[in-house]
Amino acid sequence: MVRKKILLLFCGGTISMHKNPKTKALEIANTTEQLFQLEPRVGEICDIDSVFIDNIDSTNVDHTHWEKLVDAITKRYAAFDGFVVTMGTNTMAYCSAALSFALQGIGKPVVLTGAQIPAESLSTDARNNFINALRLATMSAAGVFVVFGSKIIRGCRAKKVSESELDAFKTFNQKDFGEIGVGMLFNFKQPRHNEPLVAKNGFDDRVVCLTLIPGLRPNVIEQLIDSGTRGIILRAYGSGDIPYDFIPALEYAKKKEVPIVVTTQCPGGATVMGINDVGLKALGTGVIQAFDMCMEAMSTKLMWLLGQKTPYEDIKELMEKNFIGEVDVSRAAMIMGIEQ
After folding, report:
1. I need a labelling partner for 205 at 20 to 30 A (CA). Which of 91, 227, 241, 335 fits?
2. Tens-place pLDDT, residues 183-211
């Protein structure tokens, strides 16, 4: 059997950190060599090569790092059977969602993983996560995934839900792509294919997330737009309810061609703006429903669409369109009693 060739893209994160003996805070310290020392038999899984992207806390990872990752994978796509990205957990779900959009249609696995406990610690979860990510990268699966703890998660549905538990991520509003036990069990089929990769790289970071709270003044939206904001995520109440006095500000955004994506503040909820009149009135201004998308997917999708120079009049349709499993409008349709 021909051994699979896997490319490791190193971005830093807790998995490679060291605890400062004086401050007790985790600091950037180690590089890829430490990962290979986790398990001497790692070479039995596949042949591994590595590329250094950065060595930083993922709190500091932004769209420029996503673009570097896309470029690195695209450049070496033909030479490797799969890709593993090691990085910090804070923004891993944002990174996996961003890569999902830029690499949609990819015929090989791209697997993101990291650790809650540094690899240098005896109790680290880094070994299992790293080994399982490598295993998945050799299998007949295509797409972007997060492997962490006992879960295999579709990249556009990943959400960090704990700062300390070893199962730190969950699948948002969908079943896990797969489960890790004695073996790996897949709940969906998404096999490899040999179609050429056509990456669509580029993100616009001029996107702001705003949370409604009682007393928030509507002119905040106008101020954001006037300061150069190109897109807004608005975390509304309930199923997407927005106070009536925000209507002029929403209409101002439409006039200025700045898309506003409305989501709910309810954990695990979905945006269905037609349930109450306050939501229905706001929907009439041209805002975009996030439906069942997670924050990580809706924000990176908006950044990606803006980065692709998508015309304003097309953004609403494309935000509500399912590209890689990130959105399902059927839940909203069911609630509203609309036949699909």
Report:
1. 241
2. 899 999 999 999 999 999 999 999 999 99
